Every structure is written in C-alpha cells, then in structure tokens.
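haha ok so turns out i had the wrong file open the whole time. this is the CORRECT one, sorry everyone. sequence first:
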Amino acid sequence: MEFPDLGRHCSEETCKQLDFLPLKCDVCEREFCKDHFTYAAHKCPFAYKKDVQVPVCPLCNSPIPVKKGEVPDVVVGEHIDRDCKYRPGKKEKIFTYRCSKKGCKKKEMLPLACEQCRGNFCIQHRHPLDHSCTRGSRAISVAGWKVKR
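then structure:
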C-alpha cells in the first residue's frame, strides 16, 4: 500500500473495512463506513437521544406527541379513540355562505358582504345594484357614478 496511514477502519465489529472517507456518528462519535453509519446499522446504544420520530394519525394526518417510554402505537390508538377529528360519515362543507338575495340559492366559499346593507351575497349579486340594496345610502347607477366623479 502506498498510504498506510490514510483512512480509518469501520468501528463495526463485523466489518472493520478500511474507509478513506469514514463517517462519524454524531451520538457515539465512532467512525463507520457508508454501510454502517446509520444508527440502526451499527446498533448505536445512544440512538434514542437523536433518532426521534413523531407518529402521524392515519385518519386525520395530524402529528401525535409521544413522551419518552410510551409506545407510539398505544398513543396513536388513544388519539383515534378520544381526540381524532376525522369523522367518516360527516363531510366538512366548503360552500357555507348562502346568498341573501330573495330567490337565489347559490352558496360561496367566502363571505361577500355588502358594505351598505351588510347582507351576504353570491358573486352574481355582490354589488348593491345587483341585489337591489335599499339600506344605507342610495345605490348609485353606473351612469351616476361617472357623473359624481
């Protein structure tokens, strides 16, 4: 060999491969080859300090906090039984804002309130002229608006 001092041997007992670019475990601070640098591959005894995984509820997709010493499966099961927001038979309504114009049955995702009468209207009836607004100041026609300017 030309460079006997170059590189390090893998710290894994079953490997001991000479690696010219060894990777150092950030927890146990031993050096490993590319095959054994993960916590699981070299069975790091201190992996619990860094390898923290947060389970996610399979129904509502929200993260479930797990304290040290608790089994994640049990905690997720308790979440599903008690706190889970997912209800299979009940769909959340998106279009909830119904138009206040008489005879109109359209619904919108966002409230479109009239500044004069404070009514909630669909896109088609959102302007005071379109829903025959009578409260507040008088509705000005398009022609009157141009004259007023």
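The two ends are 91 Å apart (CA to CA).
again sry for the mixup
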